[in-house]
Write a structure and sequence with these properties.
19 strands; alpha+beta; 475 residues
Length: 475
């Protein structure tokens, strides 16, 4: 990307000056190396988002940003409720895709000689892959209850324990969900998919806590070097995808009705207070609950495996946070507290210390920000900062970000070779498809260390610990 088009604010902040139809400037948080590597389409999409009605302060992109549908993946934009819009493209198709991290109470040495069996058992009992199905089937009434209750509903059905809910975004249940706005087609698609990982970049990974960067925060999170943890990365499956598909079509028509000029049809949106806007919010919030329930069910499946193989393991939840949402939140803008609708597409909420919505255990250190990496490079846990409120509406990156398309990846790597190479490094991969492994080869992603360093350098989050992959169940 040509740096001449930016105003360099500091080493990690790049401003796109307001011009043309832009209502606000653009901001990209990245190192010089990362921003040079970004596709020019990221620049275009940040500018396009800045033209939408009611946008507040700036159109933003995180250090892992890459081209997406309408909004860049890694995009953040907040809208005024009176004059602003809600955009299905600003949330994405995998609504409330997110990462949940579970502590096991085990140390790395306790897995010695048992890794293969653990990998095989998890793979046998965690449904993964395209079209994966579980044994669960919900009645219409159960579906409505799940879409309204989220993880809270799942706990009530015996999947997990009540204390889990305190460690989940929105405490496990998104208010304002309206199952009536979820189509029959979306329900049918979801019916066999509760308790499944899905495909693409979704995974369940057993990891070891490696380097500890911020010991005080790590201690508050209950993490120490050598600890074994589990990350679960998935979303709202077919239901969320169907909602995104349906409302993008409706919003393309709705935008024109309200005289909204779209520089890109994929930016389809509707006024927040319009009928379509309200309907989408009701459906999207239902999908958030679906994703929270899905990860809660998968947590119980995982606990059952560990109970069989490691009876002394505890499997306590650290946190669960999404990165494809639109949330109604309170933020300070120009010294004034305002209610805003914050779109985060491939961006993670990152509330800093003292935020009133955080559980007491995180009040002094900030919210855990769980950053998924590739199968071979590891992941990170970051923490929200006080500065991120003013800088990015309390948002940070969500992962490494793709450096090449899935098609390009399959031309460069073979799944069985990737698996063999990673096994040589002590990382066990289990997947129903070799193509899926090739698509998700570590080399297909940006350098996660650079992404996290940029987020840290920009002060939108602070690095707490690095996580090393041990076992990856891949869709």
């Amino acid at each position: 990307m040509d740096l001449g088009r930016f105003e360099r604010i500091n080493d990690y902040t790049w401003r796109i000056p307001q011009s043309g139809n832009m209502r606000v400037p653009g901001i990209i948080y990245a190192s010089e190396a990362l921003i040079r590597e970004m596709d020019d389409k990221v620049y275009d999409q940040v500018r396009n988002v800045a033209t939408l009605p009611g946008i507040v302060k700036a159109s933003m992109a995180m250090p892992d940003a890459h081209w997406g549908y309408g909004f860049p993946i890694g995009g953040v934009a907040a809208f005024d409720p009176k004059h602003g819009v809600v955009s299905a493209g600003g949330v994405g198709f995998d609504i409330s895709c997110g990462v949940r991290l579970i502590k096991t109470g085990l140390k790395r040495h306790e897995l010695e000689g048992r890794m293969e069996r653990l990998a095989d058992t998890l793979f046998a009992r965690i449904p993964a892959g395209v079209g994966s199905k579980s044994h669960l089937r919900l009645t219409d009434d159960e579906m409505d209850a799940m879409l309204t209750g989220g993880a809270s509903w799942a706990v009530g059905q015996g999947y997990g324990k009540p204390e889990d809910l305190e460690r989940i975004e929105e405490r496990g249940r998104m208010e304002g969900a309206d199952p009536r706005e979820v189509s029959e087609r979306a329900r049918v698609r979801q019916s066999p998919e509760m308790g499944t990982l899905g495909s693409g970049n979704h995974y369940l990974e057993v990891q070891e806590v490696g380097e500890v960067r911020e010991p005080t925060i790590a201690k508050a999170y209950g993490l120490d070097a050598g600890d074994v943890v589990i990350s679960i990365h998935c979303g709202s499956r077919g239901l969320g995808h169907q909602i995104g598909t349906e409302y993008l079509k409706l919003m393309a028509i709705e935008a024109a009705k309200h005289g909204i000029h779209l520089p890109d049809r994929e930016l389809a949106c509707a006024p927040i207070n319009s009928q379509i806007g309200r309907s989408y919010l009701g459906a999207m919030r239902s999908a958030i609950n679906c994703a929270l329930a899905n990860r809660q069910i998968l947590t119980q499946f995982t606990r059952d495996v560990f109970a069989d193989l490691f009876p002394h393991a505890k499997l306590d939840l650290l946190y669960d946070v999404s990165h494809n949402t639109c949330k109604e939140e309170q933020h300070i803008v120009d010294g004034e507290k305002r209610t805003l609708f914050v779109h985060r597409k491939g961006a993670t909420r990152a509330f800093g210390p003292g935020h009133p919505d955080l559980p007491d255990v995180f009040k002094e250190v900030g919210q855990p920000v769980i950053i998924g990496g590739s199968m071979g490079t590891g992941s990170y846990i970051l923490a929200g900062t006080k500065e991120s409120e003013a800088l990015s509406f309390s948002s940070s990156c969500h992962g490494a970000g793709r450096a090449m398309s899935r098609t390009q990846a399959t031309k460069k790597w073979q799944g069985d070779k990737v698996i063999a190479d990673l096994k040589g490094k002590g990382i066990l991969i289990r997947s129903p498809t070799m193509r899926g492994v090739a698509e998700e080869a570590p080399g297909a992603y940006k350098n996660l260390d650079e992404v996290v360093a940029a987020a840290d350098g920009a002060r939108i989050s602070v690095t707490v610990v690095h996580l090393k992959p041990l076992i990856c169940i891949k869709g």
